[in-house]
Amino acid sequence: MAEPVNISEFHELAKQALPKMYYDYYSGGAEDQYTLRENVEAFTRIMFYPRILVDVSSIDLSTTILGYKVSSPIMVAPTAMHKLAHPEGEIATARAAAACKTIMVLSFMSTCTVEEVASSCNGIRFFQLYVYRRREISALLVQRAERSGYKAIVLTADTPRLGRREADIKNKMISPQLKNFEGLLSTEVASEKGSKLEAFASGTFDPSLSWKDIAWLKSITNLPILIKGVLTAEDAVKAVEAGVAGIIVSNHGARQLDYVPATISVLDEVVQAVGGKVPVFFDGGIRRGTDVFKALALGAQAVLIGRPVIYGLAAKGEYGVRRVIEMLRDELELTMTLCGCRSLKEITRSYVRTERDSLRSSL
């Protein structure tokens, strides 16, 4: 295949490159995969309302995230076990993110250690956190990340248990030994049936995690805390009250509870509930620069991309990840040019119309 010209071509290359078990793991969603499809398709129902005769000879995509300057509002989402996609794993991803002058969120379930990724290159990195039943393991990893120069903690809050991913059950998906946990706990599980990853998660994830635990997390780190997994106005208000530094609107890439709404369809509601008190970020279903623009127009400060990064990594390693980020950035720049927006702050709600807007105007 010739050099890919869009994300879906990278997806095709990744499908050819990966063993079926790993491809299914990365690309699959929960149960009927309704939300998985909807995450992508919901973007197709949002239309642009561009402005003409604007001087767009100069376009500025740069922004700041928690005070850190980045070249574009496109960050790397936390995704697990990059070495299943490429031998260099998260180190290749980190180098690509740094080359693109953007932020990478390292997964708690990474196949390279917190320290290896930190020493691989200069870049701004955040650390994603799951809270385990053995709290001291989570606390230790937070402290290691802080010592290694990570700039924020991203608490994933939608995973008291792992969602039912049927492809992983059929494939008997294995969980490799994760280097971050060496000497702390084993990812070996004695489950003969179904997904070994799911068996590992159900034995380790803490289902008692609740809002009061934000105070516990604040007590063990000085880093700002972002909360990932917010889908409702009510939870957005609680997150602000709990004192988080930012919110990530996310349905975990449709891998947890099926038949939750596509993230882009609830972004508006969450942004309005937050009322500008903290930044709102977005992930789920982004495959084009036009999707990035739509999320920004609906109030996100930046977006995070997960599967496209994995597809780039599986297809072409570090170079592939860099190309994926650059592609989305170039498409966003073109969208801004054709909509008449010269900077990110000019991208406002008035440039897009959602299905809900069309419904209101017809009433």
TrEMBL record:
SUPFAM superfamilies: FMN-linked oxidoreductases. One of its GO terms (cellular component) is peroxisome. PROSITE patterns: FMN_HYDROXY_ACID_DH_1, FMN_HYDROXY_ACID_DH_2. It comes from Aquilegia coerulea (Rocky mountain columbine). Belongs to the FMN-dependent alpha-hydroxy acid dehydrogenase family. InterPro entries: Aldolase_TIM, Alpha-hydoxy_acid_DH_FMN, FMN-dep_DH, FMN_HAD, FMN_hydac_DH_AS. Glyoxylate binds at Y25, R165, H252, R255. Transmembrane segments: none annotated. The keyword Oxidoreductase applies. The active site is at H252 (proton acceptor). FMN binds at residues 78-80, 107, 128, 130, 156, 228, 250, 283-287, 306-307. Residues 1-357 form the FMN hydroxy acid dehydrogenase domain. Signal peptide: none annotated. GO terms for biological process: defense response to bacterium; hydrogen peroxide biosynthetic process. This is (S)-2-hydroxy-acid oxidase. SMART domains: IMPDH. It comes from the Eukaryota.
